[in-house]
Task: structure prediction
Amino acid sequence: MKNLKLKTVLILLGIMINSSCTKLEFDPQNAQSADDMYDTKDDFKDVLNSAYDLFGNSMNGTVQNFNELLGDNLTDIQIAGSGLEYFAIYSRGTITFRTGDCFGLYQGILRVNTILEKLKTNMPGFTQTEMDEIEAECLFLRAWMHWEMVKLYAHPYGYTPDNSHPGIPLRLESAYKIELRSSVQKVYDQIIADLKIAESKLPGTNGNYANKWAAKGLLSKIYFQMHNYDQAFNYADEVIKQGGYTLSDSINRFKPGAESEIIFSIVSSLGNNKSGTFTGNYRSDQNPNPPFKISKEVIAKMFNDIFDKRKIMYSVQKANTPFEYWVTKKFNRDVFNIPLIHLTDLYLIRAESQVERGSKIDGYNDLMLIRNRSYGFGNRSFNPNTSGVSVRDSIRLERRLEMIGEGDWTQQLKRMGSQGENITIRGAAWNCPGMILQFPATFKTDGFIFNEEGGCN
Result:
């Protein structure tokens, strides 16, 4: 009976979300009320698990791929024939026919909003601690899903001096109503507010689910994108020093051996494999001509150093011919977890934040922790008395090489551009119209502002 109840409520929630961007045209008169779906603790937990599952269905490589396609780590998308939508994103088109990732992340937001509302009226035997933890997990997910959307569909924080440029619709309740785009500042304010509550109420350990260290790590990542290097440093430093995680020796976080540094990941299993979007586009052992290929420009940066251990994760096909291309072995497994918050990222955040705050030597010391792993005895050490800009640029290079394919680098380029640096991406300005996705046509309603068209030509 419980499975039937869960199936019914998910169908009802699906009906609601499939109209969340337009108007509700179906009146589910005979559908079971969502009020009846929250009778027990297990009912709440089931819906929360389904929200995690939806989040995982978007962070299974889909969101990461959108970011990589906008950046400069990939090449040969058209030749590989990776599909109309992916090619449109790679070509930086601004047409409105695409669905993008609206319904996946917003559906997850709807589910956690429903839980948050039901917690206020229906508390089937929960202790206050249990209620706090469920609320915190919901806010953690809501903040993160809004953040992924605003990064893809809006220009970055800092694009305008007061961040008044259009962001995304904020959805903070389950009841249907048309939502126009909030400013980027308002979106980020809400994300931070949600995460501040989450970090205060989440436990220190929580199995495969969000804990307080995940919330703090996510806050560090977000503040870093906001150019708030003091807060980015503070949160990264706290997780590194107090979270109990250790930097792994593995050069590939997507294989066993890196678990000690993973703070939050999407868990995959044979019965619920979340890694398929990565393997479908990158895997090169079963398909020597995968849709996504690595740009020769970034390969050259890695192969420029004979000691870089990460080179073993890349190989060349049709070498020394006009058709030469490079592929990665990083995702060559049937099933793997997807690390989203990890110490490598936080060390690099702390390193660059320290340089931005004037602590060049401390940033250098963090950089060398990553280099010691990547280069071993061939560590590309340099004089720490070199300029702060040189240390900063070296930190950025390590970040790029560490996270190829993980959807990070494009947003870092936008961060650099929005703080005044001269950034071009595949020959186009970081802030050209095609560097953000266009909203689907289903968002069209009075007052809704679509993104500028014109691509990046």
Q: What stands out?
A: The chain has one domain: 2-23+31-271+336-420.
